[in-house]
Write a structure and sequence with these properties.
By secondary structure, the chain is mainly α. The protein has one domain (5-80). The chain is built from 3 helices and no strands. It has helices at residues 5-22, 29-49, 58-80. Helix 1 (5-22) crosses helix 2, helix 1 (5-22) crosses helix 3 and helix 2 (29-49) crosses helix 3. The protein starts with a helix and ends with a helix. The mean pLDDT is 92. Keywords: Cell membrane, Membrane, Transmembrane, Transmembrane helix. This is GlsB/YeaQ/YmgE family stress response membrane protein. It is found in: Cell membrane. It comes from Tropicibacter oceani. Belongs to the UPF0410 family.
């Protein structure tokens, strides 16, 4: 069972905001939402390949999304160099 469309947007926004604060990135609301959602998708894919399944509840997905968004910010910074 998934989180739902609106809950995914809220969790994605929070995850992106957390990542932008941790990584000291100046991102806006829309980019925070995108970073959080895409970061959660990427990190869930990587974790599943490693045999780890994050529960489809808001707190685990918030953590996975924040980690994934942080990884995306880090990757973007490395590619800009």
């Amino acid at each position: 069972m998934g989180l739902g469309f609106f809950v995914s947007i809220i969790i994605g926004g929070l995850a992106g905001w957390i990542a932008s604060r941790v990584m000291k990135a100046d991102t806006g609301l829309i980019l925070n939402i995108v970073l959080g959602i895409v970061g959660a998708m990427v990190m869930n894919f990587i974790l599943q390949r490693a045999g780890i399944y994050a529960e489809r509840a808001w707190l685990p997905q918030l953590l996975v999304g924040a980690l994934g968004a942080s990884a995306l910010i880090w990757t973007a910074r490395q590619l800009r160099r």
